[in-house]
Design goal:
Blueprint: H1 6-17, E1 23-30, E2 33-43, E3 49-50, E4 57-58, H2 63-77, H3 104-108, H4 121-125, H5 147-163, H6 178-192, H7 196-205, E5 214-215, E6 235-237, E7 242-244, H8 251-255, E8 265-267, H9 269-283, H10 292-299, E9 335-340, E10 344-349, E11 354-360, H11 371-389
Antiparallel strand pairs: 1-2, 1-11, 2-3, 4-8, 5-8, 6-7, 9-10, 10-11
Length: 392
């Protein structure tokens, strides 16, 4: 039976009591085995009840590492993706806006020169063929009938990303970029010869035996696996006139039908931790879905881009004070991880062999993140985990 680290559980229960998030779930693995699993708070709809371990969270930008980065690493290992070949070689049209020299490495390291964010969804909401996605719930067709608007939305976002001009030369700066990962999702589809959701299933989720993690894909309603599952709400959305539940929180991902390189995944906390463990095993030289040499290349911090704390897809703890806290990730090998806007995180301490998955719906009910509050909760949780395991 999985244990509980009392200090970690207390930190999360305090976060619930302080209303940092109404629902929180955590899983900590050490040496490949679970040493902590706890859930706190409740699911509010359709009827209020205590949160369960099988409830699904919108993991937001954890999609970037759980799906997009892991698929990219496997395609590199298979020889289907070359990190330093121009993106435009596989994605015609991407060369527009001065992007002809941008490579997959630039996209993965957030060093492409693309902007941090663009409201691509607004063009979809104004498009006669795509606007159904943004109608109020009483006027919107059911999910299974949204494939046409979703396909149109995906095409509009694709065209906008291909045409997006650079703000800086490739490799000149590090700037976290959602458009860069949206482009990376399209690139992986071209390299892998299948939709991103199918690639993630084929290369990541099924080989690991994961059955809960999923994209909800309006473009392909046959892939809708929401029935019988409970999703944690992520907050009020003014653009869709509803509280988001069983629908991706990110509006650009929603405009693409729910599947994108930067956002769209839903998961339980245990399956987030399982993918983290797969990366830890690869980086420790064991058998995994990603070969050890490729995993090491992806986990290596980008030293060529000024001011970067990024690896390829992954983040590393910053000197300015990481959400990982003050004790984990301080060994010579350090740590890799990532955050999600809805209040999620995944961190892997490479020296201690510890995986920490934390899922919350911090953005509920307002729909807006308070970065200082969720950062403080993450730090308290990770420091409590380290204390409970005698690290630092």
């Amino acid at each position: 039976m999985t244990g509980v680290l009392p200090g970690a559980a207390a930190a999360l229960e305090a976060g619930r009591a302080e209303r940092v998030a109404p629902a929180l779930a955590a899983m900590v693995l050490a040496g490949g085995s679970p040493v902590h699993a706890s859930v706190h708070g409740e699911v509010e709809t359709p009827a209020a009840r205590p949160l369960r371990r099988d409830d699904l969270f919108d993991v937001a930008s954890l999609t970037k590492v759980l799906a997009t980065t892991t698929v990219a690493a496997e395609l590199v290992a298979d020889g289907r993706l070359e990190l330093d070949r121009p993106v435009a070689d596989l994605l015609p049209g991407f060369e527009r806006g001065g992007k002809q020299a941008v490579t997959p490495r630039h996209l993965l390291a957030h060093a492409s020169g693309l902007p941090a964010w663009r409201p691509y969804f607004k063009a979809v909401a104004a498009d006669p063929a795509g606007r159904a996605l943004f109608l109020p719930p009483g006027e919107r067709p059911p999910f299974a009938a949204l494939s046409g608007p979703a396909a149109r939305g995906r095409a509009r976002v694709r065209e906008a990303v291909l045409a997006e001009p650079l703000e800086a030369a490739p490799g000149a700066r590090a700037l976290y970029s959602d458009p860069g990962f949206i482009a990376l999702g399209f690139l992986l589809e071209a390299a892998g010869g299948a939709p991103l959701a199918a690639l993630a299933d084929q290369l990541v989720f099924r080989p690991l035996g994961l059955g809960a993690i999923l994209f909800l894909d309006a473009v392909d309603p046959d892939r809708d696996r929401a029935e019988g599952r409970t999703f944690v709400s992520t907050g009020s959305c003014p653009h869709r006139h509803e509280v988001n539940q069983a629908a991706v929180n990110d509006d650009n991902a929603w405009a693409m039908g729910g599947v994108a390189g930067h956002a769209g995944l839903f998961s339980t906390v245990s399956e987030v931790a399982a993918i983290g463990q797969a990366w830890l095993e690869a980086l420790s030289g064991g058998r995994s879905i990603v070969p050890a040499d490729v995993a090491r290349a992806f986990a290596r911090r980008d030293r060529s881009t000024p001011g970067s704390d990024r690896a390829l897809g992954w983040d590393t703890p910053s000197a300015a004070g990481s959400s990982l806290g003050t004790r984990l990730g301080r060994g010579p090998r350090g740590a890799i991880g990532h955050l999600g806007y809805t209040g999620t995180s995944l961190w892997i301490d490479l020296d201690a062999g510890v995986v920490c998955a934390l899922l919350t719906n911090h953005t509920h009910p307002s729909g807006v993140a308070d970065k200082a509050r969720i950062r403080a909760l993450r730090q308290r949780f990770h420091d409590a985990v380290a204390e409970g395991l005698g690290i630092g």
